[in-house]
Design a protein that fits this description.
This protein is globular. With 324 residues, the protein is of the alpha/beta class. A nine-stranded mixed beta sheet has the order 3-2-1-4-5-6-11-9-10, sandwiched between helices. Strands 7-8 form a two-stranded antiparallel ribbon. The protein has 14 helices and eleven strands. The longest helix is centred in the first third of the chain and has 14 residues, at 43-56.
Length: 324
Amino acid sequence: MTDRYVLVDTDTGVDDALAMLTIAQHSGTEIIGVGTVFGNCTEQQAARNALTVLSVAGLRDVPVCIGQPRPGPPPATSSPHGLDGLGDRGYRPRPAVGPAPESAVDQLLRVAAEQPGAVDLLCLGPLANIAAAVTREPRVLTRYRSVTIMGGMGPASRRDVEAAVQPQFLEKGDTNTNHDPVAATVVSAAPGKITWVGMNVTGRLRLAWADLVARSEVGKTATFVVRDITEDYHRYCTSTYRAEVPIYTAHDSVAAAVMLDPTVVLSATDARPRVIHEDGRAGVWGVNPVRGPAHRFVTDLDYRSIRTRIAATLDADIPRPGTV
């Protein structure tokens, strides 16, 4: 029986793929649509990637809608997710399978209107589609059962604490916000049950690469996620966090786990989201006092439970093989 309906907004890179597969493996949960946005790749490529990932999960009828283009020139540096967002391994959707004609923004607005209070919205990329929907309908996010955003840096009051625990915290920054700080500013002022799962908590989950490779048996989801698309990305993770052994950071899967099971949140605080620019980068921080809509910022998680969920996803059989 389906008891949870999810709409995913994503730039479909390597960790987005694992997050989508994690949702697909969750009993009683149905992905009712996917909207794509620029970030790890173009919004068009993100749609092709989403169709590929859904095929790996055995989901053939989920509409994938293309969203907003990048509001400026492409990044000067290449993406650790590869030129195509999925590690440049040649993956593409099945022949004759393509995006839906509806735009991602229209999909966001339609789902909110048709199923008010019944759908969870998971945002895994820059917030351009969400901001465009809010601009057209300021209260649209209040019509979702929950809104979970993989983004932000956490409460500003904990900046020094997080920087001490995670030396690369400030250096890594708030990637999704930095791609489109104007969109993040719009969403920050929107009302709704909005939870920010920021780099302050997602960066703490570091999975040993050797353990992931050991799970990569033929026919298992880990074969696609680990051996096929993640080889280069895990090197980026290892270098970025200066890890002593190879690691993989599953930022988007942490946000997906929070959406799927809110009990994994051990602590959180209400604050006002504010986009702060410093050192040439933009990031969302939770600040007080709260003026306007308060959003929730996660500060600690049950990482053991999240690891278990990710492991179960990787160990699951692939219902039908993806297409190359």
